[in-house]
Design brief:
By secondary structure, the chain is of the alpha/beta class. It has five helices and twelve strands. Strand 4 (78-81), helix 3 (90-107) and strand 5 form a beta-alpha-beta unit. Bound molecules: NADP nicotinamide-adenine-dinucleotide phosphate.
Amino acid sequence: MKTKTKTTIAVLGATGMVGSRVVTEAGARGHQVLALSRKPARDTPRDPRVTPVAVDANDSHAIREALAGAASHSPADAVVVALRTVPVDEEFLVGATRTVLDVAARLGIRVLVVGGAGALRSPGDRDLLVADNPAYVPAGIRSVAAAGIAQLRACQSHTDADCVYLSPPALLEPGERTGRYRLGTDTLLTGADGLSRISAEDLAVAVVDALETPGTDPLITVVHAEHPSA
Ligand SMILES: NC(=O)c1ccc[n+]([C@@H]2O[C@H](COP(=O)([O-])OP(=O)(O)OC[C@H]3O[C@@H](n4cnc5c(N)ncnc54)[C@H](OP(=O)(O)O)[C@@H]3O)[C@@H](O)[C@H]2O)c1
């Protein structure tokens, strides 16, 4: 991603809350986008920069084909993983992530995984993961947080892949695109109002920024900021 300004970004989970906003943000910045999901959205106004591609993330062959390029589209320069299942399926999440990491390592492309806040350390208590902190993760969603941590471990243990794992703040919901956020590494961030939150639109801004200007931290997080960062 460093040498080209306009690139081809694949988004796995392109129809989801996060993925759809990453597709919009990347397309608006002039990137080509491969929008990958099982049921590609076909009813939305067609952006010529966005190519919907039907891919089941259980199918490693389909992932390889989609990322390597085909007659209908260019190969990807980077891939964003924004997968979620209800109920949570840790085995699927980790398996699909490993497949993407394997393929991306072979193709030499960067991977950005949008994971969960549970993988972060608690503010004020570095030894307590957010996943184990009832102030952020009630018992009913601990399995979701645990799956996110397993996904992070899959990234960390894949030594051949160039991967960054983006943990959202505690609250991530559709909202406004302000373009204002603060970046952190392994600890949950809170804003001036004490809230750990960001809109999915601003998270998408951070995702595309991280692809356009890659940093060196393998684990990053973001939070909404009232003022643009210096
Ligand atoms: N505060 C937090 O920590 C927080 C909050 C929200 C979300 N998140 C994380 O953000 C990420 C994205 O979540 P989201 O809310 O955007 O999820 P979502 O809206 O439920 O979307 C999930 C996406 O995954 C795709 N998908 C599911 N199974 C698939 C399969 N077998 N093959 C291909 N695609 C598949 C779906 O596409 P199809 O069904 O069309 O195939 C859809 O595009 C997840 O890691 C989630 O945990 C974190």
